[in-house]
Design a protein that fits this description.
The complex is a heterodimer. Chain A is an alpha+beta fold. Chain A contains eight helices and twelve strands. Chain A is about 40% helix and about 20% strand. In chain A, helix 2 runs antiparallel to helix 3, helix 5 crosses helix 8 and helix 6 crosses helix 8. The termini of chain A are far apart. Chain B is mostly helical. Chain B has two domains: about 120 residues, Cytochrome Bc1 Complex, Chain D, domain 2 (Orthogonal Bundle); about 190 residues, Cytochrome Bc1 Complex, Chain D, domain 2 (Orthogonal Bundle). The chains are: A alpha+beta, B mainly alpha.
Chain lengths: ~325, ~350
C-alpha cells in the first residue's frame, strides 16, 4: 500500500470519525453515562477494551516475532518459562483481577441495595404491549399517581424501580442511567439507579415483545430537586376540568373507558393515563413527536403507526371531533 | 364378437350425443304442473334425506329456550308461511302449484332431528325452492328457527298468532310499518329471555345506523334482512325518528340489584387487568355518543347473544362496531351472562315527555 493511499484513508477517517463518535453521545447511549450504574458499566467497558487491546497487541507481536526468518532458537528451558509465565500465570492473574473488579462492581449495578426499599416506596413500572405504565408511590402527604411512558427523577438521588409485566416479557433499559433488566410476567424485579446529570434520555424496550417492539420506548427526565417537586405536586393533583369542547368529546366518544385524565374523569386503568399529557415529549410511547397533528393521526388509526396496538381505530369519528380531542390533549398541561 | 375398447368408446360417445340431442330437442318437460314420475319422486326424496342425514353428522345442538320462539315465529310469518302455510293460514294457494309442493310442516317435522332441521334451514334444498338462510354467519338465528319448528306441530292458530305477534293477524298494509316492527319489538311482549331488542329508549342515531347496517350488510341478520327488505333509505330514517320520538326514556334507572355482583362490577368499573373497560363509560351515561346503544332494560338473552356475536366478530353493526369486537373478545361466558343480567335488571325509569332522541 502506497503512502499516498494511506494518507487518503486517514483523511477520510478524519471526516467520518467525528460522526461515528457523535453516535456514541446523546439521549440513548451507554457510552455517555448520566447515572452511577451506567458510569460503572462504562468504566468496566473501557478497562476491558484497553486491557484487551494491550493483550491482543502483545500476542500478535509475539506471533510476528516467532515468524521471523533469521532468529536464534530458544532453549527448551527458555521456551518452557515463556509458556509458564505468559500462558498460565499471566491469564490467571488478569482473569482473577477482572473477577475481583466485576464482583466489586456488582453491588452498585445490581439491585440488592434496592431490596431494602419497601415495595410501596418504589416506582412501579409495568411493561404492556406496547407502552409503559408507571406508578409513583405516595409520599409526604402527596398522593401516589399513575402516569405513562415518561419517568421523571430528581438528580443525585437513588431511586428504586419495581419492574413487572402482565402480557409478555419486556425489558427495562435506560442506557444513559443503567439497566437493563427484564420485566417478566408473574415476577417482580427490582432495579436501583442513581442519576448524576440532568437531561432528557430515551429508554427503549430491550426484549422483543411483539410487532411494535421497536416502537416501545419511554422518556426519562432527570431534573433538579425543586423542579421535580413541582412536577410531583402537579401530577398528584391532576388536571382541572376546563369545560372545553374537546374535553366533552373525550367523554362523549368513550375515550374515558380506557384512558384517565385524573381530576376530570374516573380512573379507567386500561390504556395509558393521559393526565398532563402535553408535558410529555412523545405520542404513542416514544413513537411520534407530541404534536396536535400526530395525536390526530394516532387517534384515527393507532395500528397504522404501531402495528398491533390494543387501541382500536377511531376513523369513524367525525374529523372535527378528532381535531377537538387532539387539541384538548395537546393543551393538557 | 368381442367388445373391445373401440366399441366401448363409440357406445359411450354415442349415448352422450343422443342425450344432448334429446335435451336440445326440448322433449323433456320441466313444467311443475305435470309432476314427477313416482320413481323419480322417490329417488329425489331418498337422495335428499340421505344428504341431509350425512350433512347433520357432528352438528352440536344448543339448548332451546322459550325466548327463541317469538323471534323465529315472526320471521316464519314473513319468510316461510308464504310457501309452507301456518297454523293461521293452512295450505297457501300459490304453493300448491309448486313442485315439489312445500310440505305441511305439522306432519313432516317429527321425521327430522334437530340437527337435520338445522341443515335444511341453514343451507336450503337444491331444486326444490327451499332457500338457504339469507346470511351464512347467524347460526343462532337458525337455531331459534329450529326451536320454533320443534314446537310447530303442537301450535294452533291463536297460540301461533300470539308468538308471531300482529303480523300473523293482519295484512302487511302500506304505511303501517311501525306496527309491523312492533309485531316483534313491542316492549310488552318482551321479557328477560327474549332474543328481540326493545326499540324504545334508543336514540335516532343508533336506530338509523342499525337499519342502515342491516340494509348494507354490515350487520348480518337473516331475520332483519327480510324484515326491512322493502324499505327505502328515507323510510328507514323515518322509522328511526318514529321510534326515537316515541321513547319515553330517562337516564335515571331503577335501583340496581341489591348486591354488587360481577355484572355490576364490570358495568361500572370494568376489569382493567383483563382489558375490559366499564360498559357505562360509553353506554347509558350523560353526554354519551348517541351512536352507542342504550342497554338498560334490554332482554338479558338478547344482550348476551349480541355480546357472543361481537366476541366472534359476527355481529357487525354501525360505524362504531369495531369497538365492541375488541371489548367483547375479552369477556368470558360468565361475564357475558352477568353483565347482560345486570343491564336487564337496570330498567330505565319511564318518564312521560322525558329526553327525546338523544341527539
Amino acid at each position: 500500500m502506497s503512502i499516498h493511499s494511506e494518507r487518503k484513508i486517514f483523511g477520510r477517517l478524519q471526516v467520518v470519525l467525528p460522526f461515528l463518535v457523535a453516535g456514541c453521545a446523546g439521549r440513548q447511549s451507554a457510552l455517555d453515562p448520566a447515572g452511577q450504574e451506567a458510569a460503572e458499566v462504562y468504566h468496566l467497558s473501557v478497562v476491558m477494551v484497553i486491557g484487551g487491546g494491550i493483550i491482543w497487541l502483545t500476542v500478535i507481536g509475539l506471533l510476528t516475532h516467532a515468524c521471523r526468518r533469521r532468529r536464534s532458537a530458544w532453549s527448551e528451558e527458555g521456551a518452557g518459562r515463556l509458556i509458564a509465565w505468559g500462558g498460565v500465570a499471566f491469564p490467571v492473574i488478569v482473569l482473577f483481577a477482572l473477577l475481583v473488579y466485576t464482583v466489586w462492581l456488582m453491588p452498585s449495578i445490581r439491585p440488592w441495595l434496592g431490596r431494602a426499599v419497601a415495595e410501596p416506596d418504589r416506582i412501579q413500572v409495568i411493561g404492556e404491549q406496547f407502552w409503559w405504565r408507571v406508578r409513583y408511590p405516595a409520599e409526604e402527604g402527596l398522593a401516589g399517581f399513575e402516569t405513562a411512558n415518561e419517568i421523571r427523577l430528581p438528580v443525585g438521588e437513588r431511586v428504586v424501580f419495581s419492574l413487572r409485566a402482565d402480557d409478555v416479557i419486556h425489558s427495562f433499559w435506560i442506557p444513559s442511567l443503567g439497566g437493563k433488566m427484564d420485566m417478566i410476567p408473574g415476577r417482580t424485579n427490582v432495579l436501583s439507579l442513581l442519576p448524576t446529570k440532568t437531561g432528557v434520555f430515551r429508554a427503549p424496550c430491550a426484549e422483543f415483545c411483539g410487532v411494535s417492539h421497536a416502537y416501545m420506548a419511554f422518556s426519562v427526565v432527570v431534573m433538579e430537586r425543586n423542579a421535580f417537586d413541582d412536577w410531583r405536586r402537579k401530577q398528584a393533583s391532576g388536571n382541572r376540568p376546563e369545560g372545553s369542547k374537546g374535553e366533552r368529546l373525550f367523554t362523549h366518544h368513550g375515550c374515558v373507558g380506557c384512558h384517565s385524565v385524573r381530576g376530570t374523569t374516573p380512573i379507567a386503568g386500561l390504556g395509558p393515563d393521559l393526565t398532563h399529557f402535553a408535558d410529555r415529549s412523545t405520542v404513542g410511547a416514544g413513537t411520534l413527536a407530541n404534536t396536535r397533528k400526530n395525536i390526530e393521526r394516532f387517534i384515527r388509526d393507532p395500528s397504522a403507526i404501531k402495528p398491533g396496538a390494543k387501541m382500536p381505530a377511531f376513523d369513524m369519528v367525525p374529523p372535527g371531533d378528532i381535531a377537538a380531542i387532539s387539541g384538548y390533549l395537546a393543551g393538557l398541561r | 364378437m368381442v367388445i373391445g375398447w373401440k366399441q366401448t368408446t363409440v357406445l359411450v360417445l354415442g349415448a352422450a350425443v343422443a342425450g344432448l340431442f334429446i335435451a336440445w330437442s326440448g322433449l323433456i318437460g320441466i313444467s311443475a304442473s305435470t309432476g314427477h314420475w313416482k320413481v323419480t319422486d322417490w329417488f329425489l326424496h331418498w337422495a335428499m334425506r340421505s344428504s341431509v342425514r350425512t350433512a347433520a353428522i357432528g352438528t352440536e345442538v344448543p339448548p332451546f329456550h322459550d325466548g327463541m320462539l317469538p323471534m323465529a315465529a315472526g320471521h316464519f310469518e314473513r319468510g316461510c308461511a308464504i310457501c309452507h302455510g301456518s297454523p293461521a293460514m293452512p295450505s297457501p294457494a300459490i304453493a300448491r302449484g309448486m313442485l315439489p309442493v312445500p310440505p305441511d310442516l305439522k306432519t313432516v317435522i317429527p321425521g327430522w332431528t334437530d340437527a337435520e332441521l338445522f341443515q335444511i334451514v341453514q343451507h336450503g334444498v337444491r331444486f326444490t325452492g327451499m332457500p338457504s338462510w339469507p346470511v351464512t354467519e347467524r347460526e343462532d338465528e337458525v337455531w331459534a328457527m329450529v326451536a320454533f319448528l320443534r314446537r310447530y306441530p303442537e301450535l294452533d292458530a291463536p297460540s301461533y298468532r300470539r308468538l308471531a305477534g300482529h303480523a300473523a293477524s293482519s295484512a302487511h298494509e302500506p304505511g303501517r310499518t311501525p306496527e309491523t316492527c312492533n309485531d316483534c319489538h313491542a316492549p310488552d311482549q318482551l321479557d328477560r329471555d327474549s332474543l328481540i331488542p326493545r326499540l324504545d329508549g334508543q336514540s335516532q342515531t343508533y336506530l338509523r345506523d342499525s337499519l342502515a347496517a342491516y340494509a348494507e350488510g354490515t350487520r348480518r341478520s337473516g331475520i332483519m334482512a327480510v324484515a326491512i327488505q322493502s324499505l327505502t333509505e328515507r323510510e328507514r330514517d323515518a322509522l328511526a325518528l318514529h321510534f326515537a320520538e316515541k321513547s319515553a326514556f330517562d337516564l335515571q334507572t331503577g335501583p340496581p340489584p341489591a348486591q354488587v355482583g360481577r355484572g355490576e362490577q364490570i358495568a361500572r368499573f370494568g376489569d382493567p387487568g383483563r382489558r375490559i373497560p366499564a360498559c357505562l363509560s360509553c353506554h347509558d351515561r350523560e353526554n354519551a355518543n348517541p351512536a352507542y346503544p342504550r342497554l338498560s332494560g334490554q332482554p338479558a338473552t338478547y344482550l348476551a347473544a349480541q355480546l357472543r356475536l361481537f366476541a366472534n366478530a359476527r355481529r357487525g353493526g354501525g360505524p362504531y362496531r369495531a369497538l365492541m369486537e375488541r371489548v367483547a373478545a375479552n369477556l368470558d361466558e360468565q361475564d357475558i351472562d352477568a353483565v347482560a343480567g345486570y343491564f336487564f335488571a337496570r330498567k330505565p325509569i319511564v318518564v312521560e315527555g322525558a329526553s327525546r332522541s338523544g341527539n
